[in-house]
Amino acid sequence: MKLIIYSAVALLLAGIVVQNIQTYAQDDPIIHNRPLDGPCALLSQSLPRTPECDEEIMRNPFPELERPVSYDPERDGVAYDPYADRSEAVQPRSILLPDEPLPYPIAWQTRTFPYFDVPGISPSDLYNTARNIRKGELYYIYGATKVGSEWWYLIGPGQWMKGEHVSILQIPERPEGVHGPWAVIDKHFQTFVLLEDDKPIFATLISAGYWLETVEGLYQIYGRTLSMQMSGPPGANPPEYSFPTRWVMFFNGNEALHSADFHNWFGKARSHGCVNMVPGDIEWVWNYFDQTADVWHPSGTQSFLVDYPELAPYIYVYSSPEEITVPQW
Length: 329
Known about the structure:
Blueprint: H1 7-20, E1 34-35, H2 51-59, H3 73-76, E2 78-81, E3 86-89, E4 95-96, E5 106-109, E6 113-114, E7 132-133, E8 138-140, E9 143-147, E10 150-156, E11 159-162, E12 166-168, E13 181-186, E14 191-196, E15 199-205, E16 217-220, E17 223-232, E18 241-252, E19 255-259, E20 275-277, H4 279-290, H5 293-296, E21 314-318, E22 325-326
Parallel strand pairs: 13-21, 19-20
Antiparallel strand pairs: 1-22, 2-3, 4-15, 5-8, 5-12, 6-7, 9-10, 10-11, 13-14, 14-15, 16-21, 17-18, 18-19
């Protein structure tokens, strides 16, 4: 099904959704995240490495996490990477979270880049490819320090990565009234996490608004379609862009979660306000939310508008704080 949503209609519908949001008593205890601690948390530019921190890292290697989505060239496609100056596969970035919380924050490498021995000070062999951490790699964040205006993150023994190339999974407290399946969009680190109450299930990278802002707030899915031709930006006549996209879920006016197979910059803000995901990752999210759609969208994809938006999954858009924490659940 092909569908074009016009901004005035979408904004009006979004206003209706906001008016219909219901609040419920929240009986469950609030889960508080904790700050980074231990010997690695003491490191800085003047003290970039210690034996105690190395030992801590060796005792806590990054675990094998389940990757729920495999690359499908027909679905996910290839896109040009200006940093690498070549086209490359648009690889799914998603992971499933374990039942128990992890000892350190999880992070993705968003661009192939060398690690530094000392945060903020270039090594003499900077262009030695053995230093490179490849785009898409996962690791723990063991420590963090700020040099000038730039954050640096400790990702291995004596290995510091520049913050602009790192997306860190942060999980906020569940907003009051939110229950069941819901999702968090973190504009700071450009991540997405799907939860059931306080339990994180699935996480991946996104590209949210750059040219136009993705507005922070608590929303619910009010419209969805398996495919559409998306044109914009809102109000442009003629439109500046038009492309086909799939697994589209609108949550705030013209802002929607949808597939993007035309770029591979996930973990970087890039859109005109929507939330781009690797096609395989957004398909997984669609299928997960669809398990409860008989409650909030019983008419299914035969209708664009959700039948009961006040019962639909919540989408919480926020920006995590500058200082990272260790998510707890």
